[in-house]
Amino acid sequence: MAVTTEITVRYASYIDLIQATPDERMERVRRGFQPAWLAQLAHDLRVPDRDLALYLGLNRAMLRRRVVDEERLSTQESEGLMAMASLAGKVIMACRHPSVERAIVADPLAWLGRWLRTPVTTGADGRRAPIQYMDVAEGRAVVAAWLSATLSPDRSP
Hints:
Blueprint: H1 5-10, H2 12-19, H3 22-31, H4 36-45, H5 49-55, H6 60-68, H7 75-94, H8 102-106, H9 108-117, E1 120-121, E2 127-128, H10 137-151
Antiparallel strand pairs: 1-2
């Protein structure tokens, strides 16, 4: 099942991000994202922006100030946003594979938002939602690996 043109157009910024070279993505983080990216990503994931900010380790008062002052996020603040946007891009790109579930292809970022909030068994920690790991780099790497495994066509049902 292929991703529709409508999805490709609607989520073009995530596709551009995931198709960028590592150097281009790093430069984007160094320049800093506009705070509006957080609101757009939260909207696309169907996650309240205050919750997304919390899970990315961002201070809401600082975000409001940056919006008012028309300032970009710092490098550290942008890293979490880049990681989340990259997950979004991966899901959209995965929709091009014929084995991806119809529910994912219908609205990839709504699916990702639900997936991120669905608790998984994490060993000693019990059950936690993947989004709860997005505030630190190591947690982001774990979530990216879980997502790749979830989207893998070799995954058993």
